[in-house]
Each structure stands twice: as structure tokens, then as C-alpha cells.
Amino acid sequence: MSEFVRKYDVFLFDCDGVIWRGKDAIPGAANIISKLMALGKQVIFVTNNSTKTSEILVNTIRDVLGVEQIDKNMCYSSGIAVGRHLKDKLNEGEKIFLIG
């Protein structure tokens, strides 16, 4: 294991353009992710595409990269992050108007 990999416990990967482009895997991405997971490193996938649910991200990673050991707790979109943040910050029953 390289010193760089040994130095970190968690690796975050942006999805589109980093581990895949369109419907094609970036060469070597699946191999690196699989190796990190085999070493016990935590791997998290992030995207600024707010239209993607965790389930969609899991299925895309499995389909495009062929890495099966992915679950929804490893996948976060900007929409998921905002939803979780608002859930923590707002009172139950408050109404929200989103612009943009």
C-alpha cells in the first residue's frame, strides 16, 4: 500500500467526469475503488447532480463500474445533502418555498 493510501481512512469520489463519463467508466476507476475497499478504506461517492437518488447512484455505480459492494449509505448527491441539512435545521411542519 502506498504512503498516500495509508495516510487516509476515507476516500470521496465525485461521480460524473471522475469515475464515469456519460455511460462509460473512466479507465482504472473500478480497479482503484475495489482495491481501496479491499484495504478496508471507506469509499464515498458524491455528485452535484441533485436529480440523483441514492438508489440511482448505487445502480449506476454497479452498472458502469461493475463494483457490486456499493450501498446507498455510500452515495450522496447535493439534493440528499440539502435534504438532510434542512431536516436537522427546521422544525417539524415548517413549510419551505424553494427558488431555483
3D architecture notes:
The protein is of the alpha/beta class and 100 residues long. The protein contains four helices and five strands, in the order αβββαβαβα. The chain has helices at 3-7, 29-38, 54-65, 78-89; strands at residues 10-14, 20-21, 24-25, 42-47, 75-77. The strands form two sheets. A three-stranded parallel beta sheet has the order 1-4-5. It has a two-stranded antiparallel ribbon with strand order 2-3. The longest helix has 12 residues, at 54-65. The termini are far apart. The mean pLDDT is 92.
Topology diagram in text:
Elements: H1 3-7, E1 10-14, E2 20-21, E3 24-25, H2 29-38, E4 42-47, H3 54-65, E5 75-77, H4 78-89
Parallel strand pairs: 1-4, 4-5
Antiparallel strand pairs: 2-3
Q: What is the H-and-E element order?
A: HEEEHEHEH
Strand order of the largest sheet: 1-4-5
Shape type: globular
Distance between the termini: 45 Å
Described by strand count, sense and barrel closure, the largest sheet is:
3 strands, parallel
Total beta-strand segments: 5
| Radius of gyration using CA atoms only | 16 Å
Q: Counting H and I runs of at least 4 residues, what is the number of helices?
A: 4
Please bin the fraction of helical residues: 25-40%
Structural class: alpha/beta
How much strand content do the residues show? 15-25%
Low-pLDDT stretches are none
Overall pLDDT level? 92
